[in-house]
Design goal:
heterodimer, A: 302 residues, alpha/beta, TIM Barrel, 10 helices, globular, B: 243 residues, mainly beta, Elongation Factor Tu (Ef-tu), domain 3, Rossmann fold, seven-stranded mixed β-sheet, 4 helices, 14% helix
Amino acid sequence: MNTSITLCGVTLSNPVIAASGTFGFGEDFAKLYDINCLGSFSMKGTTLLPREGNPTPRIAECACGMLNAVGLQNPGIDKVISEELPKIAEFYHKPVMANVSGFSVDEYAEVCRRLNDQAQVGWIELNISCPNVHGGGLAFGTSPQAAGQVTKAARRATKKPLIVKLSPNVTDIAEVARACEAEGADGLSLINTLLGMRLDLKTRRPVLNNITGGLSGPAVFPVALRMVYQVYEAVCVPLLGIGGISSAADVLEMMLAGATAVQVGSANLINPCACRDIIEALPATMAEYGVKDLKDMIGGAH
Amino acid sequence: MKQCVYLVEENELIAQNTYRMVFSGDASAFTAPGQFLNLQISGLYLRRPFSVCEWEEGCVTIVYKVVGAGTQKMATFKRGREVDVLTGLGNGYDVSKSGLRPLLIGGGAGVLPLMMLCKTLLAKGKQPSIAMGFGSAGEAFFQNTFEELGVPVSIATMDGSLGAKGVVLDACRMDACTYFYACGPVPMLKAVCAASCSDGQVSLEERMGCGFGACMGCTVITQSGPKRVCTDGPVFAKGELIW
């Protein structure tokens, strides 16, 4: 039985990647299990300068999911390179994915440039879809022109495989996907969180200090699946399916829709061993559905 | 941190809307009073964090107040029910700094972690005293337990139905202690820090996503930058916080 896949020229032992923002820099999980079983993990979204993020409360809950408004809290690219990557090297020996965010085209390009010499970084994931910061992130992900522009600048700044993370908060995600592919994206990851909110009946005010936040968890799985299905028909580059994946069966379903690999996000927060458990369950689930090589599933529903 | 399956042994009402739940299970991940556990409740997506009141080998006690959907479900848990928990979370109180006569200050549910703290301090030969604040006499708990330990107890209630009328600061003297340990709502913690002449530690509460450091949902801004309440805290030194 074969679970390996190839993502932009890098072979992964399995398609399960821990999603950015739910896995920190891996350290808290490495204390719990050997995270070298992962296909890879995507590091906490990194900007040029350190960011404190949004005021709390940053977390809310809903049926089958959660909302977050963390707002890209991170130590900045220089500290990620000087402190986090060396720490990661102690417990993780495979290529990691660097998730990059910014507030201008130049900032995205500069962060990509600084990552060029980092051998541990296998891919850059360009986050143009964070819904929790103002004037950055999502602003680049909601128009095909802006998405193309930032992809083009990042493409010029780095030779590493470039994956662009798309927002579901758009009318036509396929159009944004095509713009990124045209400007040199090697892959696309989708979806980031859906914009949502909750109100507190006792205070009659929003639960989140930021008012709105990003919805994730099993609640968004069908939306993510639909968008992966649509984008698979619109582009040729490999896709990373993200959104509510919580089981090996979800992985197979997302791959059938067109994903080459998947990212597991919120599930890590509920069950810290979620990625490991999903990876361990893959062979039995593949056997159940008569799958010998996981690669055969990619886009199989089309 | 350790992920465990706990068995509910007891779940009894001890004060108005307040329950004491005793679990049997692996308590080995707990190392300091003030740590917490994160409990999964079927039908709810996120886990719920609870301060641990006491633990010993094979046994862990929490006390919780029914305030929402999660705690309403917990109130129905029967003996023998299995619960998935993340254990040994957070840093806990540092007892090495207490001096001889530390003052423990708890507001409402903030009294909970002070039980294990008090017992730990007593075992080290310290002479702790405790001040507790509640809404009313019906909500008060642990008064007898602390008194049985021989610890001086002072109480304030908002409606004056038990002890002094007012907030917890109305029931205690901050000037006689060598050190303080506080847990309760943020306005209370701010007032305690402002009134104190000594150093101390406070335990914070925040809405959490994961409870073990991954999601950055519970950040507090400190003198040394943003810190996670769940892993860098929940206990912070008085001077660390920017109120």
